[in-house]
Write a structure and sequence with these properties.
The complex is a heterodimer. Chain A has one domain (16-110): Roll (SH3 type barrels), CATH 2.30.30. Chain A has two helices and seven strands; from the N terminus they run H-E-E-E-E-H-E-E-E. Chain A has helices spanning 11-14, 62-69; strands at 19-21, 27-30, 33-37, 42-48, 79-82, 86-89, 93-95. Chain B is mostly helical. Chain B has one domain (2-400): Up-down Bundle (Amino acid/polyamine transporter I), CATH 1.20.1740.10. Chain B has helices at residues 2-16, 21-34, 39-63, 67-109, 114-131, 134-145, 150-157, 162-168, 177-190, 193-205, 213-245, 252-298, 307-310, 312-329, 335-361, 364-367, 374-400. The chains are: A mainly beta, B mainly alpha.
């Protein structure tokens, strides 16, 4: 199943929480929240990052989760990916560009984890 | 012809990989305590895992989604997180139990202490994962696990009263807490969710598509089906040898004794060797399943096929699962006790992962013409009901029977 522009989808059912994959096939996060603007509302960006997790849990757990992931900081633990960057939606949200250029997938930077020298690369 | 051969080899590996420490412990104890009475619970659990695995494999092949991808999509972040935490906890217990079991068997085979062997097993498994591709891992441990067919040979050799064995396959409920506890244990040991989660992610690792659907169905029917025969054999041999003697098999070495009784030292070595491969494979499967779940839920890159450089967080996650398993195995708690907890808690956590899976498997938006048909629907929802009942009963029974000890 693949969607073209102009088709309608149910956002909570089909877009929110979906896996994001960049142009090279790299998995680089999930759709943690959505930005809606205009009237009638349209999706203007997908929002990604652990900083958004507190928004996704029940109110009474927000403080605890915020302490774990840090406060919502745009450009760091919360990223805004403009809708124009989305190529298509099939079994994942496919991006037009590379994850690094959008700041996504930094957690899987091998230099952060000293895994370059592991023998089964 | 080539594909038929390949499919057959996959099924054979699945048969050998069916048993793990949970089945070895629970089924042997069930046979010793209730003779053949709980054979029906093995059948119930075996059909259950076949139904669940067939659905997960089909969803992975058709929609490209492994289990925790589906869970995040259908349950959302918050409820999905509950499923993740519960599964991670059970996976940790399982890795600890399997590693401990591995060390117990090595201790029986060679002359060093348990504690040394936990560490040794840890490094050995890392070397094996480093040296073999994904398919090779499945086959090494799957084929080695076939040594456990010595228990089927033992059952035949013992010449039990086959009518009594046959009667064991007729479901019967006794309102005795220990009996009911073992129904939960034997069922749940056959349907350990990590096996299915590993299988589902494995389908993505091996780049399954709709063309693999037949292979998926055959794997579920015959791989798990014939594996279930091994699980039944454990009950029969234990019921035949230990039940009349009133032996309570509380340690893992006892599981292998019926094979020694039937075939001498050869039988014992075959049984211990088979257990080594089966539990070794299960250690890798459960630690990988733990890492798959976390990575998929949080959207990380994942997979043995990606390698550590492309999927560093996934790699570190499964190493961490193994390392925490070492801590648990070295904690001084008997691995057999850890096994009981991991098996009982796994059925408690199961509805959280099973429900979203069935919701996707029936959804034509994701599955098109391969959505659940009538048979898959009836079996799928029927098992959901069974799982719910057992999940609710599991912890009260664990407490009431003091872990089956009465």
């Amino acid at each position: 199943m693949s969607l073209r522009s102009g088709e309608e989808i149910r956002l909570g059912y089909r877009l929110l929480d979906e896996q994001i994959i960049d142009v090279d096939g790299k998995r680089c996060g999930r759709v943690d929240d959505l930005e809606l603007r205009h009237d009638p509302p349209r999706v203007t960006a997908i929002l990604v990052g652990v900083g958004l997790y507190p928004r996704r849990v029940p109110r009474r757990l927000r403080g605890l989760v915020r302490r774990l992931v840090g406060p919502e900081t745009w450009g760091e633990n919360a990223l805004r990916i403009p809708w124009e960057e989305v190529d298509r939606i099939d079994a994942a949200v496919r991006l037009k560009g590379k994850a690094e250029e959008l700041g996504l997938g930094n957690g899987d930077d091998p230099d952060r984890w000293m895994v370059r020298r592991l023998p089964w690369n | 012809m080539k594909t038929i051969g390949k499919i057959a080899l996959g099924i054979i590996a699945a048969i050998g990989g069916f048993l793990d420490i949970g089945d070895l412990v629970f089924n042997t104890q069930a046979g010793a305590t209730f003779r053949f009475d709980l054979l029906w619970a093995v059948v119930l659990g075996t059909i259950g895992i076949a139904v669940y695995a067939e659905m997960c494999g089909r969803v992975a092949a058709v929609s490209g989604r492994p289990v925790f991808d589906v869970i995040r999509m259908r349950l959302g972040f918050s409820t999905g997180l509950v499923a993740l935490v519960a599964s991670t906890f059970v996976n940790l217990l399982t890795v600890g139990a399997e590693l401990g079991g591995l060390a117990l068997i090595l201790e029986l085979l060679f002359d060093t202490t348990y504690s040394m062997f936990v560490i040794l097993a840890f490094f050995l498994l890392i070397v094996i994962v480093a040296g073999l591709p994904f398919g090779g891992l499945e086959r090494l441990f799957g084929y080695g696990g076939l040594l456990l067919f010595v228990f089927v040979a033992t059952a035949i050799h013992q010449e039990p009263d086959w009518t009594a064995v046959g009667n064991g396959f007729i479901p019967s409920i006794k309102w005795d807490p220990t009996y009911l506890y073992f129904v939960v244990g034997v069922f749940s040991a056959a349907l350990m969710p990590y096996e299915v989660h590993f299988y589902s992610s494995g389908a993505i690792e091996e780049r399954w598509t709709k063309r693999n659907l037949k292979e998926n169905r055959l794997n579920a029917m015959f791989g798990y089906g014939i594996g279930g025969i091994l699980a039944c054999a454990l009950i029969v041999v234990s019921g035949q040898l230990f039940h009349p003697l009133g032996v309570d098999p509380t340690d893992l070495g006892t599981v292998a004794l019926p094979a020694q009784d039937a075939f001498g030292e050869t039988g014992l070595l075959l049984a211990l060797g088979g257990m080594l491969f089966a539990i070794g494979g299960a250690t890798i499967d459960s630690s990988f399943a733990g890492a798959y779940n976390v990575a998929q839920f949080l959207g990380w890159e994942w997979g043995r096929y990606r390698g550590p450089r492309k999927a560093p967080r996934f790699t570190i996650a499964w190493l961490l699962f193994l390392a925490l398993g070492v801590v648990l195995a070295e904690s001084g708690i008997n691995p057999v006790d850890i096994t009981e907890y991991s098996v009982v808690f796994s059925v408690v956590a199961l509805p959280f992962t099973y429900l979203p899976l069935i919701l996707i498997a029936r959804d034509r938006t994701f599955m098109g013409e391969h959505a659940n048909g009538r048979l898959a629907s009836v079996l799928g929802w029927g098992y959901f009901a069974v799982i719910i009942v057992l999940a609710i009963a599991a912890i009260p029974l664990l407490l009431a029977t003091n872990g089956g000890g009465g």
